[in-house]
Here is the input.
Amino acid sequence: MKIDKKLIKELSEYLDEFKLTEIEFTEKDTKIKVSKNNISINNQTVPNNQNNPVSNDKAQKIINTNSGIEVTSPIIGTAYHAPEPGAKKFVEVGKKIKKGDTVMIVEAMKTMNHVPSTSDGVVKEICVNDGQPVEFGQTIIILE
Here is the structure.
């Protein structure tokens, strides 16, 4: 299979033009996915050389503010508080969690992406409702 460098370059340009983090092109048995992740800390953007867009803690930003530590959505999708309807929620306000614990699931294109906590702490606030759409970088929970 020959790689179409022109198509990849064009898809990469679309990422910048439309401010996307990922784009996918499928034609017959060919599938090309181009992604670009950034870590944003205190409004400074640092490129992330990770090619996997679902590398959750790499795509999140951590902001230490007066309100606490913000855990943000690593992708655009729909946020869910539990692994399935009616199941126990991953986190609740006041619950103590450790770095790496799943705090929420963000579904994108029928794929359930577990969002891990980026820090140890106590859940101070849950910023999104169950089933609510979220944007890349949107704060989903705040830790103390």
